[in-house]
Recover the amino acids of this structure.
């Protein structure tokens, strides 16, 4: 989200109504299998050749997409600048990559009016932006905020203060955003159960198996409901809010590529072995 404008995603959280009873989560695997076609059969598309890493989920009557990165099968990286500067959209970014190597990609956190990250950002081991521990307004500064980072098969989410105090080696990738949704198994202390601020939102969390769950809502959702999904359904210890209103997903397996407001940082999940090899 743009730091200087702070649109819908930065509307202050307000008092909430009593929480509604949650309903069981229903899971449907996204197959991406195309409908039968008339003869002659057209050339297969990307969607017909690869398995989707994303699944459709319903949580408390709200549809979500949960894209799962597994250390054994995927590598995670970040991206920002293209030949002409900031990619600004997933569709522009997609033109620069071989789709067969991409599991999925999402927007990676908040940014300024120039499209530059407002917090810590590492791309291919190169630090593009230092850790931001300043106070301020908006979601990014709703402490604690945090950093999603990793090297090789090890991925972590820590609060910014924890990262500053305990991480001395520069990771292969890293992005800072805020607020944290779940901190050590508990909801962020300033997030209400189901507040009035509702928009399309996305986040990331690491489960007990070390998998990264990138969740994006398919309908407007509150901070509280998204946080509860991570805590109660995915059982993650830490989850980090990435953004709202500009939240977007590119899933080549289903040929989904969201459009909308310009984005800045991007998180890219690649297949370690392309499906055609």
């Amino acid at each position: 989200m743009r730091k200087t404008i702070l649109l819908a995603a930065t509307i202050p959280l307000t008092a909430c109504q009593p929480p509604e009873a949650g309903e069981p989560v229903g899971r449907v695997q996204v197959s991406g299998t195309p409908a039968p076609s008339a003869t002659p059969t057209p050339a297969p598309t990307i969607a017909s050749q690869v398995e989707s890493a994303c699944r459709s989920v319903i949580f408390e009557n709200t549809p979500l997409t949960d894209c799962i990165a597994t250390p054994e099968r995927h590598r995670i990286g970040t991206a920002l600048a293209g030949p002409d500067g900031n990619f600004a959209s997933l569709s522009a970014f997609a033109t620069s990559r071989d789709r067969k190597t991409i599991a999925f990609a999402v927007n990676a956190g908040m940014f300024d009016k120039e499209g530059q990250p407002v917090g810590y950002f590492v791309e291919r081991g190169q630090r593009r932006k230092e850790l931001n521990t300043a106070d301020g307004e908006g979601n990014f500064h709703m402490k604690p905020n945090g950093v999603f980072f990793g090297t090789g098969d090890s991925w972590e989410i820590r609060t910014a203060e924890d990262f500053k105090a305990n991480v001395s080696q520069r990771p292969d990738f890293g992005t800072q955003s805020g607020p944290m949704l779940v901190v050590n198994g508990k909801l962020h202390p300033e997030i209400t159960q189901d507040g009035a601020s509702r928009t399309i939102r996305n986040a990331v969390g690491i489960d007990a198996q070390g998998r990264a769950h990138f969740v994006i809502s398919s309908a407007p959702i509150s901070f509280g409901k998204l946080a509860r999904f991570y805590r109660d359904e995915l059982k993650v210890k830490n989850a980090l809010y990435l953004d709202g209103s500009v939240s977007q997903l590119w899933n080549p397996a289903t040929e989904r590529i969201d459009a909308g407001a310009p984005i800045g940082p991007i998180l890219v999940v690649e297949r370690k072995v392309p499906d055609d090899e």
About this structure: Residues 223-233 form the longest helix (11 residues).
